Amino acid sequence: MEKFIVSALLSGFASILANLGVAVFNDGLRPMLPEYLEGRMDRKALAATSFALSFGLVIGFGIPFSIGSAIILIHSILLGTDIIGTSTPRSKKGLILAGLLGAAYGIGLVYGLQMIVDLFAKMPIDVLSSLGKVGAPIIVGFSVFPALVVGYQYGTWKGAVTLIITLLVRQIITMFGKIPISETVKITLNPDGMALLIAVIVMLIFAITDKQSERTNSNEMLVGIFSSRVARVKRNIIPLSIMGGLIAAACSLRLVAGDPISLKLLAESGNAKNFEAGIVALARAIGFVPLVATTAITTGVYGPAGMTLVFVVGIFVTNPLIAFILGAGILALEILLLELIAKSLDRFPGVKACGDQIRTAMTKVLEVSLLVGGMMAADEMAGGKGLGFLFVGGFYLLNRTSKKPIVDMAVGPVATILFGIILNVLYLFGLFAPIVPAK
User: Fold this and answer.
1) Which helix (H) or strand (E) holds 73?
2) C-alpha to C-alpha distance for 151 and 160, rounded to whole angstroms
3) What values do phi and psi take at 435, rounded to 5?
4) Cα dihedral 376→381→382→383 (10° resolution)
5) What is the C-alpha to C-alpha distance for residues 435 and 267, in angstroms, rounded to an integer?
6) Are the C-beta atoms of 326 and 236 separated by less than 8 Å?
7) Do residues 329 and 241 lie in contact, with contact meaning Cβ atoms separated by under 8 Å?
8) Which string of b and e fits 96-133 if b means at least 16 CB within 10 Å?
9) Is 214 within 8 Å of 275 (Cβ atoms)?
10) How far apart (Å, rounded) are the C-alpha atoms in residues 59 and 75?
11) Contacting residues for 375 by C-beta, under 8 A, at least 6 apart
12) What is the spatial distance between Cα 258 and Cα 312, in angstroms, rounded to a whole number?
């Protein structure tokens, strides 16, 4: 019941903020809001744009990652609330309608995903146990992303050095990561978590000491040009802070996660996995600081999750009430320091330049990991006969020829879910005989 209430509050409030044009989750939609607010775009055009930008991501990205886990990828909720908020009239009645529809959507998403899980569980061929393998390569592979960022930004050789350091740290921790405290107590360090932590530190050292990137005062100029829009963000600090608190509380309850990697890690639970998930969320936040800060200054519209630091709070703080207070405080602090953060990015051009590379590198690592994971999971469903590799590989390649392809990152999960359904259909027609007896 607690999760249903928090989900309803989160979705309802996010829909209200989208209706008012205060905050939207889709980065591509945010620049459209000033066009509507300043009278250069009508409501129907805004709603159509929101639907076009977000609906495919909800169906093809958010929901597939959420199926098979008790944790919902935040994109499933907040991209949907963008659509609800911008599609309802901007009036008192429209505001109430947005809140009610948003709350119903949040409850329906939690309940509906559980129904899908229950439906899969009733199928003759068990595919749910194999679906967990889709994200298995993420845990190991994600440590590579800082090396990829360094490679993109500073060249292949420096990227290779970062990768070698990452591999060495992981192997050293694997061999010597058990530290005895007493005769009965030992601290066991997690190899993947420590490798990721050190790799992120190396990446930040490269970024902070970067002398190549040209130092500019571009953000300082933007703050001056768009001062009225910065003021608009600050006027909405209270509702935005409440939104941040709700997201942190939902993450604390393990109801939502901010990205597929931390979702996978949190779903496995345990202190080591929570630590890794927190590091992942923190690294992702670093990548989003330049984007969120710049779009907030130039549009006057914020993101409901802000710079995504609220997810870090939710991961490390397991009490939802404390997480709400801290999450609200973090998001308020972001807004109060918005101009200072923007100007600081001018002082550290390497960090600013790495922002785009971090998002790109995370996406690339996810695409590869989830494709490999999808192949592994699908082949396990088929009893290791190679059929799963054939289907997922073929799906990936054919998707690239489609006029409206789904994002590469979602190909692995979508193909695996579809393959599980196909296997059950083949079994019913006597065209598939599993090695493991059917239920």
Assistant:
1) strand 72-73
2) 7
3) -70, -45
4) 90
5) 28
6) no
7) yes
8) ebbbbbbbebbbebbeebeeebeebeebebbbeebbbb
9) no
10) 10
11) 388, 389, 392, 393, 412
12) 9
Taking the C-alpha atoms of residue 62 and residue 76, their distance in angstroms, rounded to an integer, is 4
Mean pLDDT of the chain: 84
Mean pLDDT on 158-171: 93
- Long-range contact list for 92-97, CB < 8 A, 24+ apart? 94/19, 95/16, 95/19, 95/20
Query: Which helix (H) or strand (E) is 178 found in, with range?
Result: strand 178-180
Is residue 360 very low, low, confident or very high in pLDDT (cuts 50, 70, 90)?
confident
3-class DSSP state for residue 333? helix
Closest by CA position to 65, among listed 412, 391, 395: 412
Which pLDDT does position 24 carry in this prediction? 93
Residues 275-332 pLDDT 10s: 778 887 887 787 777 778 878 888 889 999 999 999 999 999 989 999 999 999 999 9
**Is-contact 11 106, C-beta < 8 A?**
yes
- Do 49 and 32 touch, CB atoms closer than 8 A? yes
What single letter denotes the amino acid at residue 365? V
CA 216 from chain center: how many Å?
30
CA-angle at 326, arms to 321 and 330, nearest 5°: 150
Structure tokens of 22?
């205060």
Phi, psi of 178 (to 5 degrees): -100, 110
Tokens of 366: 């996810």
Structure tokens at 356: 């785009």
Strand partners, 72: 256
Q: Which residues contact 399 (CB under 8 A, 6 or more apart)?
A: 405, 406, 408, 411
Percent helix, strand, coil in the chain, to 5, is: 75, 5, 20
CA 220/CA 344 separation, integer angstroms: 9
The residue whose two tokens read 């050190």 is 198
Q: How far is CA 434 from the centre of its chain?
A: 35
For the segment 3-16, the average pLDDT, to the nearest whole number, is 93
Q: What is the pLDDT of residue 244?
A: 96
* Beta strands 72-73 and 178-180, pairing class: unpaired
> Within its chain, how far is the Cα of 410 from the centroid?
12
Whole-prediction pTM: 0.77
Largest CA distance in the chain: 72
Nearest CA to 112 among 193, 33, 58?
58
